[in-house]
Amino acid sequence: APDSWDWRDHGAVSPVKNQGMCGSCWAFSVTGNIEGQWFKKTGQLLSLSEQELVDCDKLDQACGGGLPSNAYEAIEKLGGLETETDYNYIGHKQSCDFSSGKVAAYINSSVELPDNENEIAAWLAEKGPVSAALNAFAMQFYRKGVSHPLKIFCNPWMIDHAVLLVGFGQRDDVVFIFLWGEDYGEQGYYYLYRGSRLCGINKMCSSAIVN
Ligand SMILES: CCC[C@@H](/C=C/S(=O)(=O)c1ccccc1)NC(=O)[C@H](Cc1ccccc1)NC(=O)N1CCC(N2CCOCC2)CC1
Question: Complex ipTM, two decimals?
Answer without folding.
Answer: 0.90
